[in-house]
Predict the 3D structure of the following.
Amino acid sequence: MGTHLRMATPQDAAGIRAIYAPVVRETPISFEIVPPTEEEMGARVGKTLTRYPWLVCTAHERLLGYAYAGGHSERAAYQWSVNVSVYVHSRARRIGVGQVLYDTLFAVLRLQGFIRAYAGITLPNEASVGFHESFGFTSVGVFRRVGYKMGAWHDVGYWQMTLQSSNGRPSPPRPLPSLPDDGSLQEALSAGWMNAGCDMEAVVKAVDAENLAEANRETERSESTK
């Protein structure tokens, strides 16, 4: 059983939230404190897709990971720069999911005309730093003690990567929905290639088990607050 990579839809909200909620609740990786609801996550996906790509990697219709881009800043001169993020299910790490998501995300961003990508990483996080630097990201600075979560202050480092050359005056990046229907987007979506080298049936079963356990924990938390 292989994997499938495609654009997300708001209907993927439950699977996306299953990956993201434990990160919010249990780690300082995300500076959100309360996990967004399924409805809020669906709204975020829909809003992002009006301009930027949001990708999901699935196996047997189970979400293994997702990656997306967003604006770096609202000021007009920043329009060629994007912030990027990738999240992989805790039971689907180190099998190539993150790599195929980023490879494909960057291909779509190049097609749109974006020039530079930025990633913020809560420190320390050697795994994420190494992962981003493997794509060519380089460190551009650290915000010291910029966020307080889980009883401690945290630094956030920023990494930058050039997506494509910027010689001359660049044309404005094209919003995702305005890309021409000439096969170029589908070609970009095929840019990433994943060779998991593992038993995907076992991965899917582990994902299902963890999602069920997470749902049970959420039910218990909800009942305890009544």
Remarks:
- The longest strand covers residues 138-149.
